[in-house]
Amino acid sequence: MAANFTKENKFVIAEGEEGELYIFIEAKKNLPERPKVIYDGKDHAVFLRSPSEKIILDYIHPEVREKLRQAAAVIMVETILENIKDSYLAEMQIVDNIPVDWKKIGLSTWEDAVLKS
User: N or C: which end of the chain has fewer CB within 10 A?
Assistant: First the structure.
């Protein structure tokens, strides 16, 4: 995996009653700094938790891709087991294409992952 990226192995995207989107991830040690999610409507998103912390949210479920593309922001929720440690707003940056060769960091597509399981 590329040295400047980490991969979030377990994350959940949920929709609230008002249509807001929550992304649940495992809690991190330091505080976020100018958090932003970069997304192109495809399989993977990149969560810039801080300028030096790039987290790959891989295999975005096809059913939430369009909602994520339409969101101006999402609510990031960091958890320790079942407990919420922190939550904060992360701006969405929608791009045409994320300039990362996913195969070079060991990722494929949602469809490939489903076929393997």
Answer: C
Query: For the whole model, what pTM was predicted?
Result: 0.84
103's tokens: 């195969």
* Three-state secondary structure string covering the chain: CCCCEEECCCCEEEECCCCCEEEEEECCCCCCCCCEEEECCCCCEEEEEECCEEEEECCCCCCCHHHHHHCCEEEEEEEECCEEEEEEEEEEEECCCCCCCHHHHCCCCHHHHHHHC
3-59: pLDDT as tens digits: 578 889 889 999 999 999 999 999 999 999 999 999 999 988 999 999 889 999 988
> Tokens 């101006």, residue?
72
